Amino acid sequence: MPASPSSSPRPALLALTPLGQLRAGRLPSRLLRLFVGLTFFGVAMGAFVRAGLGVAPWDVLHLGLSRHIPLSLGTIIIVVGLLVLLAWIPLRQWPGLGTIANTIWIGVSADLTLWLLPEIHGLALQIAVIAAALVVNGLGGALYIGSQFGAGPRDGLMTGLHLRTGWSLRVIRTGIEVTVLAIGWLLGGTVGLGTVGLGTVAYALLIGPSTQFFLRWTVVDLSPPAASDPTAADRDTAPCPGGTAPGSTENG
Questions:
Q1: Do the Cβ atoms of 52 and 120 come closer than 8 Å?
Q2: Which pLDDT belongs to residue 156?
Q3: Count of CB atoms situated within 10 Å of the CB of 232
Q4: Domain assignment present for 247
Q5: CB-based contacts of 173: which residues, under 8 Å, 6+ apart?
Q6: Where is pLDDT greater, at 10 or 91?
Q7: Does residue 15 lie in a domain region?
Q8: Considering Cα of 5, then 147, then 174, then 169, what sign does the dihedral take?
Q9: Does 81 score more than 90 pLDDT?
Q10: 153 is in which domain, residue-wise?
Q11: How many domains does the chain fold into?
Q12: Which ranges constitute the DSSP H helices of the chain?
């Protein structure tokens, strides 16, 4: 008996090579999802900053650097992303279209959001903005991941270290996040309530579930092109381990 629509398998996330990303098909739809998702990332980032209750660990670093470097926050995000990409070289990681777009476009959209959005005052409104930003960030992450254009620079660093060292992704991710948070704090980048900030804690706990929730509707199905060319899967793709995307919860 044919499977009902509700029981049909969801589209798979694939680990595509940079060339495979461009050859996988459905480019207009995927490019739209990619840039809408990255724009949502930047909007959420700007909203976190304006709410003033804490930001994601990497953004603590960005804000800390902005206190010492006369550049806009978005420009600093781009520069840090490019520096992280340099760390891909010894790890033998290859950036894809999504990697380059992530490196540049999130910073652009964050700067635009900060230009348009004033500072948020009043605890109730600040919390509401943080909650909305988490939803927007989760949807943006799901659209970006679902476009299947590869990992962003920071998540690519994580997966590259995992492949080269064999260490647990959880250990590497935690080590990177704690390191950038500590450096950002030492540079004066702490924003919000307490030592870390309500927004930082909320982001750390909720961005993963938020992104995972939206992924069920946002992954572009690339199986028909793969089925029409049996050699394409061997040449350009490989199943993504554990069904997780290379750029699962990255904020830039």
A1: yes
A2: 86
A3: 17
A4: no
A5: 158
A6: 91
A7: no
A8: positive
A9: yes
A10: 25-219
A11: 1
A12: 18-23, 27-51, 57-66, 73-86, 88-91, 97-116, 123-146, 153-165, 169-186, 198-218, 223-228, 230-236
What tens digit of pLDDT does each residue of 175-225 get? 888 899 889 889 987 655 554 588 888 888 888 888 889 988 988 888 754
Token readout for 242 is: 């554990």
Structural domain contains residue 132: yes
Q: Is 16:235 a contact under the CB 8 Å cutoff?
A: no
- pLDDT reading at 84 higher than 50: yes
Q: Among residues 207, 252, 199, which one has the least CA distance to residue 77? A: 252
Q: Retrieve residue 6's tokens.
A: 């509700």
Percentage of the chain modeled with pLDDT above 70: 82
Angstrom distance (rounded) from CA 235 to CA 15: 11
Tokens of 75: 């420009």
Q: Does residue 155 sit within a domain? A: yes
pTM of this structure:
0.81
CB 176 within 8 A of CB 162: no
